[in-house]
Specification:
single chain, about 170 residues, alpha+beta, 5 helices, about 15% strand, elongated, disordered C terminus
């Protein structure tokens, strides 16, 4: 028997996350990632003697590649396994499927890899979309078919075969 957690959202009276809260959560995430870079990545690359080596046509420093991989892994893994990054946890918000069910790995990849890559390639301007639509969705949310909601939303477990609600949390 398959079970899924369902998140009641805006249509049922549970608001999407505030734009300022999302921004503050993202700033916390950037501070976390900067700290990992300073405390772990740079010292390890320095000890290995590859800190300033260039790769890919001798144009891109290896540290830039490692930092980018850690950045995307952080967002992909935290969002997939917990529905939230450390910043989102602190501010009580989480990412959910716009359909109301738990995120699929494909949704997370589309949101965090493709959506964020395109957003960053466009100088982060697509984040401004959050200000101009009812569900406060950025380009990465549209691409991943996701919403960021207040974590205080009601969660309940559904028996998928019978569509029977097990219990409100």
């Amino acid at each position: 028997m398959k079970r899924e957690t369902v998140f009641l959202q805006k249509e049922m009276g549970y608001p999407v996350a505030d734009t300022l809260i999302r921004l503050l959560a993202y700033i916390v995430d950037l501070i976390v990632l900067w700290s990992v870079r300073q405390i772990a990545i740079i010292p390890i690359l320095t000890m290995l003697g590859v800190m300033n080596q260039n790769v890919i046509f001798d144009a891109i420093p290896i540290r830039s590649i490692v930092v980018a991989v850690v950045f995307f892994l952080y967002f992909v893994l935290m969002t997939y396994f917990f529905g939230q990054t450390l910043g989102k946890m602190i501010f009580g918000i989480r990412v959910v499927s716009s359909k109301g069910y738990e995120l699929t790995f494909a949704q997370v990849l589309y949101r965090e890899l493709i959506g964020r890559y395109i957003t960053q390639a466009l100088l982060n301007l697509p984040y401004l979309m959050i200000l101009f639509n009812e569900n406060r969705m950025g380009l990465h949310d549209f691409i991943g078919d996701t919403l960021v909601v207040n974590r205080k939303e009601v969660e309940y477990t559904v028996d998928v075969e019978t569509n029977r609600k097990e219990g409100l949390v």
